[in-house]
Amino acid sequence: MSQTSSPNRWVMLGVSMTGQIASTILVNGAPFLIHHLHTERGLTLTQAGGIAAAPFVGVMATLVLWGLVVDRIGERASMTIGLAIVTVGALGAALSPSLLGLAFWLVVGGVGAGSTNSASGRVVVGWFPAHRRGTAMGIRQTALPLGVGIAALLVPNTVAAHGLRPTLLLIAGICAAAALLSAALIVDPPPPTRAEAADSGQLANPYRRDHRLARIHLASALLVVPQFTVWTYMLVWLIDDKGWSTLSASVLVAATQLLGATGRIGAGWWSDRVGSRLGPMRTVAAGAAVTMLSLGLLSGTPLAIVLIVVATAVTVADNGLAFTSVAEIGGPFWSGRAMGLQNTGQYVSSALVPPLVGALIAGRGYGWAFGLVAIFPLIAIPLVPVRGEKAHDPV
Known about the structure:
Layout: H1 9-27, H2 34-39, H3 45-52, H4 54-73, H5 75-95, H6 99-127, H7 130-141, H8 143-162, H9 164-185, H10 194-200, H11 206-209, H12 212-241, H13 246-274, H14 278-297, H15 303-314, H16 318-330, H17 335-364, H18 366-372, H19 375-383
Helix pairs in contact: 1-5, 1-6, 1-7, 1-8, 1-9, 3-17, 4-5, 4-6, 4-17, 5-6, 5-9, 6-7, 6-17, 7-13, 7-16, 8-9, 8-13, 12-13, 12-15, 12-16, 12-17, 12-19, 13-15, 13-16, 14-15, 14-16, 14-18, 14-19, 16-17, 17-18
């Protein structure tokens, strides 16, 4: 590929991040409706958590399919179509007259959001060289905490001031703008020819070659549990348990997402420096276990606020490391499906967290819930295949 025909890789990173942020605002903004649904609509925490989980169900059900679509038709088309579907889902949710309809359209929005995970990841992996890929993917992975941070400011405050429908219409507008931007600016990275790929072994199924991908998928699914516990219930905990106002709580949640974004970039830079994605990932898993256990034990003390802020950074730092490793191992002809499977496991966990942790909080309290989820990163530590890690695979 000639240098003159190559787009600016940082523009590609920025546009792909924008699409990921837009879809994140819908998917991860749903948990910020829990307080409204619980206090204004009279739903239990378990019921409100079920509605909040609806977009995660849509994402989870279609991630592998989107990975296959990205492998077949490319990143630009997949991302544009997916964001258009997210827009339709947000519009349908806004206009729905019932809570059941709200849940249905949030599922539809989640279906479209699944496209941005594989597509934006492949844009970054395709346009950045291996020695910069960890940092670039760390920056790309900040789209999730940045999207959550924006949702934390946007959703609860707009719902409180104007109601549910204007909030969802605003989200639909954001997603529509991101779809147009993707269609106009994204350039698909050129893959190697099939002959070149065959010579380098990139056409072979990486799941049959060894167990690295399967172990990374499982470890990542476990590590999502503390991440989404904190993301889903931090706002409600601050308001209901600590007596904070909605504005103050949402500002802190948004600020902590910036800290989480910094942590992802730092973890990516670290992985480039040490030439390893999975060694840092195992260290992050250990840190998540310690942090969540400490939060559970000290949730009734003033130190809990500091610990939950730390938790928002530590529990997200592994995502970029795992995603980059999966893309590198999968290669250009399998990375879409591999990233789809990676995210599927994560979204299975994400969809289960709101209702199940909500039931645990209702029965035993926030301290028990925070402390018990420390079990999941503890189990993930030995699953990370550090010994099987190889030099960064060329993509």
